[in-house]
Please model this.
Amino acid sequence: MMLQVDERAIAPMSLSEDLQQDRRAGLAWGSFIGDALAMPTHWYYDRAAMQRDYGEVRDYLAPRNPHPDSILWRSVYTPLNERGDILREQAQYWGQRGIHYHQFLQAGENTLNLQLAKVLMESLIERGCYDADDYLARYIRFMLTPGQHHDTYVEECHRKFFTAYARGVVPRKCGGSDIHIGGLAHVGVLCAFLADDLKAARAAVREHISLTHQSKEVATAGDALARILVAVTAGGDLREAIFEYGTDWFSRRKAEQWSREPDAVVIGRRLSPACYIAEAFPASLYLAWKYADDFEAGVIANTNLGGDNCHRGAVLGAVLGAASGTHRIPLRFIDNLTDPTRLRTQIDHLVRQHPPAVENASMNVLSSKILIRTTVPCPSTSHLKEEPLQRGN
Model:
């Protein structure tokens, strides 16, 4: 049912529960939509070639080979043993020129990081709380089980994680140094689940990012993003939330200056379209600021800018989805995602659960981990059996 409410006129924390749930659902949908829409043009830097191959992308499309800007030919990953064998049947394409990073995905299908966001979503729903150990067990099982996905590209953060895992490092300590915006790909799902508790959301986001991205810069961006998303789902104005919580990355002065230029200049000359968080996160915030009232225009603009538009898209889609709510997201973007019926059920369960509130959240400075102490402890993870680790060569 279409909700006839001018949400822009509502003060923070004054939205009805139904409207807040609609915004939380929009937040989750937006993450998946922003990624899937951008998938065919992911890591195109030659915009003329992108236009030649796809035209203006406004709907989900399947990727095409050859990819003129692919650098998969110079990417290398050699697993130490079976505990690190995450490429499997895709390994044969690494080292070849012109291979599209997502060559086997269908129109509307998510890239690997957002497929892992669905793994996280399953953990949140089944556990009723954020449980890092439960997620890690599911993550490892997903990555090491043949046939779980057919995405050719596996990001550096996963390669570092499974190299450490193959050496016998415990999962909690397998994350490596990584400064890419892909580290924010799951913040949308976490905040859709925890949006009614800012302290819990910030703590879970920091802990989750640290599992695969040991980076103060990515953690800081994740915290800013969590604060923006929680504020907006509660009814806050998106642009004001960006200026309030994203001040280290974006400002009113930049908004005023950059708004006079085309998007391709802002994200191309002023900011790199690449994956590094120092410029990719400000690029995401700029697009969110510019398209605050138009989800469709925002995700389409991001898609056609190329670069790391999938992970930018996951961030942008979450922010714009939180502002618009599901009811203002075009239905074609929802209905044409891969397996939308299942995803709709999962998102509905995700936003209707009420996880336990955080009693105290503190940072252990030495380990850079957030410890969450809930009034109702997350159920025991003793059911998760860790197989004996084999040492790498």
In short: Residues 17-38 form the longest helix (22 residues). The CA atoms of residues 164 and 174 lie 5 Å apart. The radius of gyration is 20 Å.
